[in-house]
Design a protein that fits this description.
By secondary structure, the protein is an alpha+beta fold. The protein contains two helices and six strands. A hairpin with a 4-residue loop joins β4 and β5. The relative contact order is 0.16.
Length: 126
């Protein structure tokens, strides 16, 4: 029996529900990619956004700001996880105009097992 489930917004025709870790990672991905004022009935969500910082120079200083915002958003809006700060990194990749995310978390209900989410954070193309 799954602990967590959510509607699959990635590919609902493939499988309509995401369970456990996939559900949580989809939620974190949506948090990171949400822009302020995008949620109609909750204009304060997320409380912080990457909108402005992603248009700064892609360097180590900006990577620290991105790290702070991403970890803050996850702490506030995803209560099912605890961030492992020692293993979580955001690295500037200026040659490819992106930041490389390595997020390591423990999930409530899974003991001390660590789960890793990797991805790229880029500027919005709109």
């Amino acid at each position: 029996m799954p602990l967590y489930s959510d509607l699959n917004t990635y590919n609902p025709t493939d499988k309509p529900l995401l369970l456990d870790v996939d559900s949580i990672f989809q939620s974190i991905d949506a948090l990171i990619n949400s822009r302020q004022y995008e949620i109609l009935f909750d204009p304060e969500f997320p409380s912080e956004s990457l909108d402005e910082v992603l248009f700064e120079i892609i360097d180590d200083v900006t990577a620290v700001s991105v790290y702070r915002i991403v970890t803050s958003m996850i702490e506030r809006h995803e209560p099912r996880v605890t961030i492992n700060y020692a293993d979580t990194t955001i690295t500037a990749d200026p040659d490819n105009n992106q930041f490389i995310l390595r997020l390591v978390v423990t999930i409530k209900g899974y003991g001390n097992q660590k789960f890793e989410m990797n991805g790229n954070i880029t500027r919005p193309t709109e």
